């Protein structure tokens, strides 16, 4: 046991190391697993939080996205958290793949029986960061960026927009960009937040962007045109594009021909997203 974290294994990767960690979360009321990639640099390093999508854990992108290959060259640490509390035994949390376990949506639940434990927003934005920066001196708490995939892209965008100035940059792979208008978001928000759609809008990147007041760094978003969820109108990146244009924000949405929703897509464009974060995190190296 090292401080608040137990290091369950240490794995060499691209000159740096992966620390597989567990810790007790007060806000989620359970033990959580998290992966931390430390680049080979000495001294303080900036930090990218990568938020994963529906059904994923903190292992999926670590093992299939290979972001640490690029982060190693640029001197960036990556945190890969989990996507929900685990093993709470709440009725209904394991009945479907897009709600409950593995589907925390990076919000704080207001509706029972999820209220009081499904608090992924507070976990990512507050508790996990406080514990990591307290435990690992090499992590620079003044230089943090966000990225994520699908539900995690939604999480990265909304956490960025809710905290003006806290994060240096944000990017996303195939984000759920307008959840109040897609089936995934409507199901999750009804289950976690209740029926008040004004409350839903507080957790929607498209709606938050329209009212945002703070620094506006360029945002990079990639979406595959072969992504079935894009075709099914679950992602709605065009709605986010319209909101960005209405407020004069440089949001680059790149529609990548033929790419799907998988980690083949994420790994293909991962270098671009790490480089995007590096521009704002102030690293001295280049890919």
UniProtKB/TrEMBL annotation:
Q: Out of the domains of life, which is the source?
A: Eukaryota
Q: Which InterPro entries does the annotation name?
A: AB_hydrolase_fold, Esterase-like, S-formylglutathione_hydrol
What does UniProt list as catalytic? 150, 227, 261
Q: Name one Pfam family in it.
A: Esterase
An annotated GO cellular component of this protein is:
cytosol
Entry keyword set: Cytoplasm, Hydrolase, Serine esterase
**Which BP terms in the Gene Ontology apply to this protein?**
formaldehyde catabolic process
Kindly state which reaction or reactions the protein catalyses: S-formylglutathione + H2O = formate + glutathione + H(+)
Keyword Hydrolase in the entry? The reply is yes
Localization per Swiss-Prot or TrEMBL: Cytoplasm
Query: Which EC numbers characterise this protein's activity in its record?
Result: 3.1.2.12
GO MF entries: carboxylic ester hydrolase activity; S-formylglutathione hydrolase activity
The record's SUPFAM superfamilies line, in alphabetical order, gives: alpha/beta-Hydrolases (SSF53474)
Q: What's its job? A: Serine hydrolase involved in the detoxification of formaldehyde.
Which NCBIfam families does this chain map to?
fghA_ester_D
Per the record, the similarity remark reads: Belongs to the esterase D family.
Q: What is the protein name for this chain?
A: S-formylglutathione hydrolase
Recorded source organism is Tortispora caseinolytica NRRL Y-17796
